[in-house]
Structure formats: C-alpha cells, structure tokens
Amino acid sequence: MRAALGCLLLVMGSGVGCSPGATRSHAASVRPHAPAAKPSDGRADARAATAAAYRTWGLEPPAPPPAPPSRKPAGRRAADGGVPVISEIPTDQKIVFLTFDDGTEKDPEFVKMMRELRIPFTMFLTDSAIRSDYGYFKQLQSLGNSVQNHTLTHPNLRTLGAAAQRQEICGQEEKLKTEYGSAPRLMRPPYGNWNENTRAAAASCGIEAIVLWRESMQIKNMQYQDADKKLHPGDIILAHFRGPAELKGTTMTRMTANLLRHIHEQGFTVARLENYL
Questions:
Q1: Beta carbons of 233 and 91 less than 8 angstroms apart
Q2: Which has the closest alpha carbon to 125: 183, 84, 81?
Q3: Torsions phi, psi of 138, nearest 5?
Q4: DSSP secondary structure string, 3-17?
Q5: How confident is the model at residue 23 (pLDDT cuts 50, 70, 90)?
Q6: pLDDT-derived band at 30, boundaries 50, 70, 90
Q7: Do 99 and 211 touch, CB atoms closer than 8 A?
C-alpha cells in the first residue's frame, strides 16, 4: 500500500509512469539541485589582490580606512573669515593623511607601487620641479590622487611682498588647471612658511585652505613635532618626490615603504585628505 501510494505521488509529481517495485530505486535517484554558486564579490577580490601586493612590497596590509564623513570636519573659514591654516584633521579615528611635495623625482616604480597598493595621497606640486614631465603626475592623478598648489618656483613666501606671493600662488593655479584639468583647492607654502599676505593671496587665487603638516618623512624615520614622538588621529604627514640623490642612495619606493611601515606599526591606516577637507 505504501509503495503504491509512493508510486502515485511520484507519478503525480513527475508526470511519468512507475511500478510499485521501482518506486524506491527511482526516489533514491532523485537528488535536490545544488544551490547556485554565489557571484564573485569584486570588492573582496580587490582587497585580496591589494593584500598580496602589500606583501610583494614587503609590507603588511593595513586595515581599510573608515567611510568618509558625510560632512567634512575641516576647511571652513577661520575665525577672522580668512583662509584656514590646517596641520591636522579633527577626528578620533586612527587615520592619517599622506602628502607628497615638489615633484623633483619621477620614479616609474613609485607609480607602480601606488597602483598596486591603492594608497590615497595628495600631491602638492611646484611648476619648476614638474614642468619637464607633467605626464608623470597625470599617471598618479588617474589613480584618484589630487594635484594641489605648491607655488611656481618654491620660494620662501615670507620673504616676498603681497604681489609676488599672489603671482606665485595664482600663477601655479593657472598652470595646474591647464595641465591637470582643474584649479587646486588647497595650497602648501614651501618650507611651511607663510604670513598674512600668504593667506590674502591664497584667498584671492581661489584657495580654500592652506595645508601644513604634523610629521615629515625622512629616509628611514619620521620627524615628529610633538614631544611624545608618535602619530595622532588626523595627522597630516609630509613626504617628498625625492630620489637616490637626495635620499643617500635610497629610492622613493623604499622611503615610502618605510613610511607605511611606521604608520602600520602604530596601528593607523591612511585616508584621503580631500574627503575631510
């Protein structure tokens, strides 16, 4: 009776005939379909590739940076209504920001390194240093890294009058807009030297903020401004486009690897400055 009922149910469900004796063997041959494979997670694949790239460069992959804030916490007008001067970003998250200045060194290995590691950074470029090869920095810009103002000829702005400062800053705005498609929002004075004429000139040229720094990278070690000799959330770090001639035989990629190692060892990760400023 059970066999006949099983046969009847099988027939009704499948539309094929069966004999009571065949019911058990036929039912045993029926298997549920395996679930469809989940589509590949592109973001997970990208993270795995980036982690592998870090190890290729002798580094441990850092934690991914947090999502940027919905409202930028820095960059609003200073109390006197002028251009703000900023050396760190207000945050309690363990993030820091990388900046590279000047543009003297144009190492193709650095482009490869940045493409593989996907590290966000900001370039403050001087025309006298980059004019021999504007295209080199376009490669880095194409990775999502912005080009910002570091004056035409890298003078100590405090030694110049108001008109000369304006020419250095506004002139570089025009150069960079022509070469890279948009006028910079940010400016870094060479040597970190500025005065009220600098702020006035920057404002007249369309600059939204003057950006300084808290730490600077040398060859193997960082120089800290604070006595505790360590990174703090929101610190802006200064490095340079420099090569073996200025780094005592060390390449820019090796210097950058040393920098990233310092950041990782202190439990920080790198975020994009323009998302906060």
A1: yes
A2: 183
A3: -65, -35
A4: HHHHHHHHHHHHS--
A5: very low
A6: very low
A7: yes
Q: What is the pTM of this model?
A: 0.83
Centre a 10 Å sphere on the Cβ of residue 67 and count the other Cβ atoms it contains. 8
All structural domains of the chain with their residue ranges: 87-275
Running DSSP on this structure, what letter comes out for residue 20? G
Q: How many other C-beta atoms lie within 10 A of the C-beta of residue 256?
A: 24
Displacement of CA 104 from its chain's centroid (Å): 21
User: Looking at the DSSP assignment, which residues form a beta bridge with residue 240?
Assistant: 101
What does the pLDDT look like over 51-86, one tens digit per residue? 899 999 999 999 889 999 999 998 888 888 889 999
Q: Which of 18-27, 99-108, 114-123, 236-245 has the lowest mean pLDDT?
A: 18-27
What three-state secondary structure class fits 23?
helix
136 contacts 180 by C-beta, under 8 angstroms: no
- How many CB atoms neighbour CB 158 within 10 A? 14
Architecture of domain 87-275: Alpha-Beta Barrel (3.20)
**How high is the pLDDT of residue 80?**
85
CA torsion sign for 240, 244, 245, 248 is positive
**Which residue, 144, 97, 99, is CA-closest to 122?**
99
Distances from the Cα of 2 to the Cα of 7, 9, 14, 124, 265, angstroms: 8, 10, 18, 83, 70
